[in-house]
Amino acid sequence: MQTHDGWLVRVTPDPTGLNPEQSAFLADYAARHGNERITLTLRGNLQLRGLDHQAALDFTSRAVAHGLGLAAPQQEARRRILFASPLAGLDPDCADDTLALAHEITHAMQDLPPSWHPPEKFSLAVDGGGLVPSGALRGDLALRHEAGAWILYEGALRHQPDRTDLVDEVLAALQRSAHRAVADRALHRAAPFRGTIPPLLGPFLPGCFGAVAVLGEISAQTLASIASAGAAIRLTPWRGLVLDRPVAAHDLITDPQDRRADLVACPGAGRCAQAHAPTQRDALSLVTELRGRRLHVSGCAKGCASHGIHDVTLVAGPKGYDLVWQGSVSDQPAESGLDIEDVRRRLRRA
Question: Which CATH number, 3.30.2350.10, 3.30.413.10, 3.30.70.3400, 3.55.40.20, labels domain 259-349?
Answer without folding.
Answer: 3.30.413.10
